[in-house]
Specification:
It is found in: Nucleus. Belongs to the JARID1 histone demethylase family. Keywords: Iron, Metal-binding, Nucleus, Oxidoreductase. Its cofactor is Fe(2+). By secondary structure, the chain is of the alpha+beta class. It folds into two domains: 173 residues, Monooxygenase (Up-down Bundle); 255 residues, Jelly Rolls. A seven-stranded mixed beta sheet has the order 4-5-16-11-18-9-8, with no helix packed on it. A four-stranded antiparallel beta sheet has the order 10-17-12-15, with no helix packed on it. α5 packs parallel to α6. The longest helix is centred in the last third of the chain and has 25 residues.
Length: 509
């Protein structure tokens, strides 16, 4: 049994701005609530307790060769020695995060040399995210993933040099930070994280109903049956896409990769934050990809189209393995969006614009968001908090063939529950154009506007293009919005002097 005190208590400090993550191993541990974390077997754990209340490791979870343990184990160890400290010498007073920040400044050769200094430096210098960063910085035109990020880096730099991945197991090495990433990469999604499904589902509704009940009131909805006629829904799978796209490279984080390379990576890599293929130019790179799907009828109006090829990025092909996804964010430029799952399934959690998700800390100007490093980490530490909130999130599992409408301004998190392929588009309709224009003319537009190089001038260009294509539209919408505000104020006063339930006047004394 592991101690409960220090396993997860620092997770809220691991913000997305950190580049260096961790990986390590333990067969069985304890969560911050004292629940066992054990390998999934469908049976009771060794102590005879049902594991439903705890966390389960994936059956395929590997044992980390370096033997790093959470710090809580030190308190139950016969030895009071933490080899992490003795191996760092005078640097032992630094936090693990700071040690890794410093090591992140080194190249591969220097990391290799430093790893021979002590067992502690061996563990730190073989920290996989350090090597992942080196690969992503060095191999901008793609890479061939080989078992580990370190092996991948060495193969890319010196293809003839072989790297042993067996690794040394270091005794009595305790570190929450180095343990955390391995834990997040190898935990199963708990059933209770998937059970809540409170989104409104609709099939075959009219455009008028969609607009009046969902787009105008700015409410999410899951739409069924929209992909039935798509060629993509019938044909898109790994083999079809590899054959169709050939040697074309797609955006995967900061690098460009061929699909065959990416699928190899996604099959082999087991990490806290899997790389996500998220390409805004896919239909330009491979014309057939853009012809294999059709924008659902509910989202046909897209006023950014008046800018032609000068419009901001607005559509993406999304491919990722289980565990990949997007942490909490609001879609760019105050646009609304739709996301269609072609293969696989995705868990969605959405909060309305006036509710910031727990564990998420946006900067005052909205330009940056600090949040837990990985999606699993957010579920482990913050999901249960939402159960007692008055305004609970909208949740669902979106399966193949289904489309979710994400209204403007809504915070949302998405995690793939299996290997998934999807298409998503952001759009501007008459119901939302005033919000978009207000966003584009913010004083800090150069910071918050995205998807275009001409951020500062996008407001002027867009407004002029709308006025030229749809004369009087903006003025008409502004007038209607003002009328609506007046009506809301009148309604608010009426409610203040009547009993809204009984319909009679009420008096306060």
């Amino acid at each position: 049994m592991l101690g409960t005190k220090n396993l997860l208590h620092k997770t809220h400090k691991r913000k997305r701005k950190n580049n260096h993550r961790s990986a390590s191993k333990n067969q069985k541990s304890v969560s911050k609530k004292g629940c066992f974390i054990s390998r999934k077997s469908g049976k009771e754990d060794e102590d005879g307790d049902d594991n439903e209340e705890g966390f389960s490791l994936k059956a395929s979870a590997p044992s980390h060769s370096h033997g790093v343990q959470p710090l809580g184990n030190l308190y139950l160890s016969p030895s009071s020695n933490n080899s992490r400290n003795s191996g760092l010498g005078n640097l032992q007073s630094l936090t693990d995060e700071l040690v890794l920040e410093i090591l992140g400044l080194l190249g591969g050769t220097h990391l290799g040399v430093l790893s021979t200094v002590s067992k502690s430096f061996y563990v730190f210098c073989n920290h996989e995210p350090l090597w992942r960063n080196l690969v992503l910085e060095t191999c901008k035109d793609g890479f061939l993933y080989i078992e580990t990020w370190k092996s991948t880096y060495v193969h890319a730099i010196r293809p003839s040099f072989e790297v042993s991945n067996s690794g040394l197991k270091v005794r009595d090495f305790y570190s929450d930070y180095l343990f955390q990433s391995w834990l997040c990469a190898n935990l199963e999604m708990k059933p209770e994280w998937l059970d809540r499904d409170n989104i409104i589902r609709k099939k075959g509704i009219s455009v008028e109903e969609f607009v009046s009940k969902f787009e105008e009131p700015n409410k999410p909805v899951l739409l069924e049956g929209c992909l039935d006629t798509w060629v993509a829904f019938e044909k898109w799978n790994r083999n079809y896409l590899i054959e169709l796209c050939g040697d074309v490279q797609f955006s995967v984080g900061p690098v460009e990769m061929k699909l065959e390379e990416y699928f190899r990576y996604s099959d082999l890599a087991k990490e806290e934050r899997p790389l996500y293929l998220f390409d805004p130019k896919f239909a330009q790179k491979v014309l057939q990809l853009g012809l294999d799907y059709e924008v659902p009828v509910y989202f046909k109006e897209d006023l950014f189209s008046v800018l032609g090829d000068k419009r901001p990025d607005y559509r993406w092909i999304i491919i990722g393995p289980a565990g990949s996804g997007s942490s909490f964010h609001i879609d760019p430029n105050s646009t609304s969006a739709w996301n269609a799952v072609i293969k696989g399934s995705k868990k969605w959690i959405l909060f309305p614009p006036d509710v910031v998700p727990p564990g998420v800390h946006p900067s005052p100007d909205g330009a940056e968001v600090a949040s837990p490093v990985s999606i699993i980490e957010w579920f482990m530490n913050f999901y249960n908090d939402t159960k007692i909130w008055k305004k609970k999130p909208v949740e669902c599992v979106c399966k193949a063939g289904e489309v979710i409408f994400v209204p403007n301004g809504w915070w949302h998190l998405v995690i793939n529950l299996e290997d998934s392929i999807a298409i998503t588009q952001n759009f501007v309709s008459r119901r939302n154009i005033l919000n978009v224009l207000d966003f584009l003319k913010k004083p800090n537009a150069c910071t918050v506007v995205s998807g275009t190089r001409d951020r500062a001038n996008l407001y002027d260009r867009f407004k002029k293009a709308i006025e030229a294509s749809f004369p009087g539209t903006i003025d008409d919408l502004v007038s209607k919005a003002d009328e609506k505000k007046v009506q809301q104020k009148k309604l608010s006063f009426w409610d203040s002097v009547t009993d809204s339930n009984a319909g009679a006047f009420k008096f306060s004394f």
